[in-house]
Amino acid sequence: MARPSGKSNLKKRKKTAGSFTRRAFLKGIGLGSGALGASLLAAGAAPAVAPPAPSPGTTLGPGAFPLTLNVNGQSKTVRVEPRVTLLDVLRDRIDLTGTKKICDRGECGGCTVLLDGRPAFACMMLAVDARGRAITTIEGIAPRGGLHPVQQAFIDKDALQCGFCTPGFVVASKALLDRNPRPSLDQVREALGGHLCRCGTYPRIFEAVLAAAGHVPASKS
Ligand code: FES
Ligand code: FES
């Protein structure tokens, strides 16, 4: 039997590669964008947030449509296209810039918000998928005019340098203490495993979370 020519081999390879699209890949592993973000967060050992099921018979987009979100206990309506992430809506449309855009690809945790009390990466979630959820940002974790105990402990322990990663760490730490008020150091490390601090302030961050949990004195060390 004659061997296929190099040219026809190349054609075959192109066809195979072309038929394996990103869409097919995501379908194959059963992940949409929201679930992908949740899974990456789970890999960082924080609880995953499942995307809500779409309402039957609802078509949104492709153009902008009115979207109402519950942010820090307030109802906010914006006009957005379905492709816009929750992070971009929070920062660019609602002016809540405490939630940071650092990697914008689910790798650093700087964009962490709470969805129904559980941490989620806002850069990996479409805003439309946050409909009907209680969204809490760094601006909403403390009583008006006050500080959350985790925020106070970060100040007391000098747990930041540039501070860019801090909101994500604080929000994730608050979520940890809400579900486990007295975590061990290992549990703190595990809960913050999906977060990066490029300044390397990890020891002080862990100490601050333990201080907020009452393990160590909260005064400046
Ligand atoms: S900005 Fe979202 S994980 Fe880095
Ligand atoms: S304090 Fe600078 S990145 Fe964490």
Number of helices: 8
Unreliable residue stretches: 1-47
**How confident is the prediction overall: mean pLDDT?**
81
Broad structural category: alpha+beta
How would a crystallographer describe the biggest sheet?
5 strands, mixed
The rough form would be described as elongated
Task: Tell me roughly what share of residues is in helical segments.
Answer: 25-40%
- Gyration radius, rounded: 21 Å
Bound molecules: FE2/S2 (inorganic) cluster
Secondary-structure element pattern, one letter each = HHHEEHEEEHHHH
What fraction of residues sit in β-strands? 5-15%
Biggest sheet: strand arrangement: 2-1-5-3-4
N-end to C-end Cα span:
80 Å
> Tally of extended strands?
5
Structure description:
With 221 residues, this protein is an alpha+beta fold. The protein has 8 helices and 5 strands; from the N terminus they run αααββαβββαααα. The protein has helices at residues 6-19, 22-28, 33-43, 86-93, 149-156, 166-179, 185-191, 202-212; strands at residues 65-71, 74-80, 112-115, 118-121, 134-136. A 5-stranded mixed β-sheet has the order 2-1-5-3-4, sandwiched between helices. Helix 5 (149-156) crosses helix 8. The longest helix is centred in the first third of the chain and has 14 residues, at 6-19. The termini are far apart. The relative contact order is 0.13. The structure holds FE2/S2 (inorganic) cluster (2 copies).
